[in-house]
Records
---
Amino acid sequence: MDIFFLGTGAGMPAKLRNVTSIALKLLEERGAVWLFDAGEATQHQILHTSIKPRRIEKIFITHLHGDHIYGLPGLLSSRSFQGGDSEVTIYGPKGIKEYIQVSLSISQTYLKYPLSVVEITEGVIFEDNQFTVEARLLEHGIPSYGYRIVERDRPGTLLAEKLKEAGVQPGPIFRQIKNGETVTLEDGRVIEPDKFLGPSQKGRIVTILGDTRFCENARVLAQDADFLIHEATFSKGEEELAFDYFHSTTYQAAEIAKQANCRCLCLTHISSRYDRNTWSELVNEAQEVFPHSEIAEDFKEFHIPLR
Ligand SMILES: [Zn+2]
Ligand SMILES: [Zn+2]
């Protein structure tokens, strides 16, 4: 599980930071990439990476400001020409459906793969046997969602030696026990999986927030997250400006990470008012409050290890 930043700038593209797009790479977990926002030229950014558009399975849109969605129609269209034939599901606020339909129909774009668009409300918006995704509204003037991606705990490793000592021979039974099933042997003995499995492996939690003011739902979505991505459009001391423009400061992002007991914070949505030399100052500000703070850069990747 890795986070790959495709675009990390605020509002409009800058030379060093394109507008927002974040890839959650789940290649080992499900051979897929989930995208969060698709600012203009996201597909150009992807060209410089190892990400395959055909691997994109889901696209989560945080809000409908242009710097988060202007890259979507082009990306969807090109995916057809890049071997993409598997279904894509897009999740986003009310209006995302019309935006996509109008863009595709006026440009007479026909996709070679099934596309479904889900206009979300707060709550669990996706769930399968691997992941749950929950969305909540933040504070940004227009509806802006934050997403909390929770990986299910994995069963512990199989204690094969212990099973052999109990007279169970390797075979399909091992797999059943590994999957947590209770097995009755031919001799009538019942094998409880708990006794033959190591401790279960805690699933990871990733929280990716759209643009927002400092707000309570950000904290709720970030609770105990392994990796929190929070915007930091302003630096510390600019709380009033941040409030007026529905954005956050470095300090506020760090305060959320601290209150929510996160493992790592990554600042993004960085204004072009800050040049390369001042990025480290922004991180330092956050680290005063929350030591495990990082700053996103275009094409920077973060691995999210198991605990
Ligand atoms: Zn934005
Ligand atoms: Zn915005």
Note: The longest strand covers residues 131-137.
---
Amino acid sequence: MASIGALLASLPEKALGQSYDVLRAPTTPLVNGVIASPEQALNVMDFEPAARAALVGAGAPAHFGYLATGVDDDATLRANHEDYQKIRIQVRRLIDARKIDTSCAVLGERWASPIFLCPVSSQAALNPAAAADVADAKAAKAKGHQMILSTVGSKSIEEVNDAHGSPVWYMLYPTDDWNVTQALVKRAEAAGSRVLVLTVDRQGGRNTETLLIARREDKRPCQACHQGGFKNEVSRKPMFDGLDVSKVTNLYGTGMTWDFVKRLQGTTKMKIVLKGIMSGEDAGEAVKYGVDGIIVSNHGGRAEESLRSTISALPEVVKAVNGRVPVLVDGGVRRGTDVLKALALGATAVGIGRPYCWGLAAFGQPGVEAVLAILQREFETIMKQVGATNLREITRTSVIA
Ligand SMILES: Cc1cc2nc3c(=O)[nH]c(=O)nc-3n(C[C@H](O)[C@H](O)[C@H](O)COP(=O)(O)O)c2cc1C
């Protein structure tokens, strides 16, 4: 006789209803409490121990440390996530939300989902067998997510745009040689990218202790790959191919001011978005200087130990901007409910960094796909509970904050 599980699995989805999910969940055992395939994941947090196990198993605990680290005590990193827990959601009843549309318009583009992939450097170090940013791009393309490629990504903008099927956004670190900076911008523009994301939060240096602790466990000589300095190391990244980097000493620029933004505006037709804004004051300045968008971000708690979470900074930025440009946010987003909360507080779209990298580190492209699918599913579920059939119907009254 067929088991109840097999019987239910053979029924059409509609006949089951969601209460039978428990019977359809994967039943293969975890290995030491860690998922062994993307299908076993119940939520995106399940991918973090899997990423750790994969990297430690490959003898690369320092690379997991690189992904995991915040700065100093990692308190800002934790605050990013924990502050989402302080916001409650206002559900609504008796609204037919069976059909929902999660698409949104962002700077002239139409995205199928407000969830985008943040720029993350050096992803080849997370899973040498996967195609790094190209794997992300293919995963993002499958479900219509936008992504942002880092200046120090492991793949070039041409490869990533190609894999994504439409141009991704390009994230720029300013460097301290304008010729090199300009060449990076021109290359991204020539590759078809329409939006340039200038990251402005890495000027001060940083103390990544969790990385340093993980490095103590790593038996490999770091110098074998990391020779240090811009010329020997950073410039090996594909976006620097063919450039004369002999005058660059610093990837993050030194003493960058609003003049740099003006200079960029004079050199490209791409729209310019600032990533790393954390105050209404700076957001107001950004709009005054004519930027096209803002990403409220503290680099995933990797820039400064301010204890200020991005979700707590979002409302004052939204207020200062007053609808003149889109405001995106990232940092600590781990649940579909977090996405809804950020949208309710005025974000146009919501970025994830570490979660998709956990997926990549553990399982390659299928891992990234699974992370995106889980977050999207959770987001759609909570949309239905607040009675929102599209993103416009997620409003300030959808949350109590
Ligand atoms: C390993 C790692 C590398 C990153 N590299 C970059 C980068 O090159 N450029 C950038 O603007 N942000 C970078 N970020 C920050 C992310 O774009 C994003 O702001 C952050 O990861 C969001 O927080 P979350 O990881 O909690 O989702 C990096 C983050 C991580 C974890």
Note: DSSP finds 16 helices and twelve strands in the chain.
